[in-house]
Amino acid sequence: MRYSAQKGTRDILPSEIIAWHKAEETFSRVCHRFGYEEIRIPTFEQTDLFQRGVGDTTDVVQKEMYTFEDKGGRSISLRPEGTAGVVRSFIENGMGSLPSPVRLFYNITAFRYEKMQKGRFREFHQFGLEAFGAQGPDIDAEIISVLRVFFNEMGLKSIKLCINSIGCPTCRKAYNDSLRDYFRPHLEEMCYDCKSRFEKNPLRMIDCKVPECKVIAANAPKLIDHLCDDCKAHFEGLKERLDNIGIEYSIDPNIVRGLDYYTRTVFEFVSENVGSQGTICGGGRYDGLVESMGGTAVPGIGFAMGVERFMLEANSQGVDFGKTDYVKVYLANLSDKASMVINKLAYELRLKGVGCEVDLCQRSFRAQMKYAGKAGIPYVVVIGDDELDKGEVSIKRMSDGTSNTVALSNFVEYCMNEL
């Protein structure tokens, strides 16, 4: 029987991995620069955590979670996103006693049983960041600037920031009443999901992707026009801070995000690159989430970015990820006696941090040289009985054919300093 990867999953091959490494290392480096520390959370949690944290009116909880009963009869779900697990860890591990804000970032896999699309998988990777304990708009501007710095360092261009405010429970209550008044005459024309959201969470109707519903929702009242004084002041404060540090933005009153926990600031970074337009990442505040999950009242804000979607965008924009240079030198073998010396030299080189390869398949000399060329190894050293007798070897640079002669006794030190 021949096996293949499950639908919605994929292999990340060695030819792609350098790009992934660069993105992961750059994201980690940028987060550290802003004072964020890495957290690692479990792949699965009890299902109720996501129902409370993500929201039981969301598509993620209602349709997309991988949920199963374990051998103890408990309902368990694979994580569909990172925030709920990080909040659980924040509460469980008493991080609320740490100096505020508590800044955390993560690089995880997540799972959603959803319709396959370009750049969207059922097992996917996600960069994320969460900050707890800061109430004002300064932290909003900070995490937006984390993303802007990351995109700049990765060489992405044509990325637009869109911001909105979806208010707090106080102003949203009155707004939800306005939405129901607007949508009520159109309900029969709308999809099943919108009808079910009408009473529970009409704000989610604005985010519906069904074409007929999108047309109706286009003329719905805008939450940004119904903000209370505190939420309005917070949003104005965010705009002032983004203006001050020079980050351009557009206000998009239709951004509501797909998860129930968001409050006040929501934002998205959107590609304006022709042929790959779409949302690259998004986030926002969730000031009531920690308390709703059993913790004390602590404000929070975060974002998440699908790495597959980001990599598609980077490739579309022609970002140069460079190439691997782990292996510096190939030690070509001409005799059994030389083979023993080569293996010892290779071990010493690796101990000293110099990547190298030797022949492990009993190839001819010509086949070894062909392999080194195809593998793109920058330097080749040929060692046979003559070289052993002379006590010196010639190190050839493959790019231009130039070579240097080095004493065997000094070979490892030379490679450490010169290659």
Overview of the molecule:
- There is one protein chain.
- The chain has 419 residues and is of the alpha+beta class.
- The protein has 2 domains: 14-168 and 228-316, BirA Bifunctional Protein, domain 2 (2-Layer Sandwich); 329-418, Anticodon-binding domain (Rossmann fold, 3-Layer(aba) Sandwich).
- It is 39% helix and 21% strand.
- It is built from 15 helices and 16 strands.
- The chain has helices spanning 14-33, 47-53, 59-64, 83-92, 137-154, 169-183, 192-200, 211-217, 229-245, 289-292, 307-316, 336-351, 365-375, 385-390, 411-418, and strands at 37-38, 44-46, 67-69, 75-78, 102-111, 123-132, 159-165, 250-251, 263-271, 278-285, 300-306, 329-333, 356-358, 379-383, 392-397, 403-407.
- The strands form 3 sheets. The chain has an 8-stranded mixed sheet with strand order 1-5-6-11-10-9-7-8. Strands 13-12-14-15-16 form a 5-stranded mixed sheet, with helices on both faces.
- Helix 1 (14-33) runs antiparallel to helix 5 (137-154) and helix 5 (137-154) packs parallel to helix 9.
- The radius of gyration is 28 Å and the shape is elongated.
- The model has no long low-confidence stretch (mean pLDDT 90).
